[in-house]
Amino acid sequence: MLTAALLGFLLGLRHASDPDHVVAISTIVTRHRSPWAASRVGVAWGLGHSLTIVAVGGAVVALGLALPPRLALSLELLVGIVLVALGVSNLRSASKAPHAPDVGNDVGSVAPLGRAFFVGLVHGLAGSAAVALLALAAMPGPAAAILYLAIFSLGTVAGMVAISLGVGAPLALASGSSPVQRLIVAGSGALSLGLGLWVVWRIGFTQGILL
């Protein structure tokens, strides 16, 4: 049991490093200028992700529910749409005049934390069924599987905080001048936009969700 719990935590850490997670959190973190703000964004993202993993994954485990394949693909498509929206938001922010205020840089603002929480919710919804099936395979019963989901979620929160600090904070600390800050924000936005469009194309058109 202890080994399975440790495995769940480690898999949660690894899950946090999925490319779409890293890109999504980077678009938010790079609009901050302090490690403290970056870590708060990571916690908010991780909590949103954990909420849907435990709630939806727990329902799958406890009630034997199964997400229809088309619904699962639709949730993945929503991840792509969110990535596109984050990318566009960062590109618009980077195009502002240097003196224009940007709410994302306000450490005390609730807006970036709410944005991170919402993005975490969406990513958690898209991955909850797969994580629940993994929990069922790894644990001897439903109660143990739900505990596994909770430990997995803790690992994801820890992983997102580490990524926020390890990726976003150094970039933010290096951006002491407005041109550099805007370049970082624009770069993260372009990456998010590109990945989001690829996800939308793959899920929406290649796999036929939008056709």
Summarize it:
This protein has about 210 residues and is mainly α. Helices cover about 80% and strands about 0% of the residues.
3D structure, described in words:
With 211 residues, the chain is mostly helical. The protein has one domain (2-206). The protein has helices spanning 2-16, 19-29, 35-63, 69-94, 111-138, 142-174, 178-206. It starts with a helix and ends in a 5-residue tail after the last helix. The model is unreliable at 99-108 (pLDDT under 50).
Outline the secondary-structure elements.
Elements: H1 2-16, H2 19-29, H3 35-63, H4 69-94, H5 111-138, H6 142-174, H7 178-206
Helix pairs in contact: 1-6, 2-4, 2-5, 2-6, 2-7, 3-5, 3-6, 4-5, 4-7, 5-6
Low-confidence stretches: 99-108
Oligomer: single chain
Could you tell me the strand content as a percent range?
Answer: under 5%
Total beta strand runs: 0
Name the overall outline: flat
Cα end-to-end separation: 46 Å
Rounded Rg: 18 Å
How does the helix and strand content classify structurally?
Answer: mainly alpha
* Helix-residue proportion: over 70%
Order of helices and strands: HHHHHHH
Number of domains: 1
**Largest sheet, strands/sense/barrel:** none
Number of helical elements: 7
Chain-averaged pLDDT: 84
List keywords for this structure.
211 residues, mainly alpha, 81% helix, flat
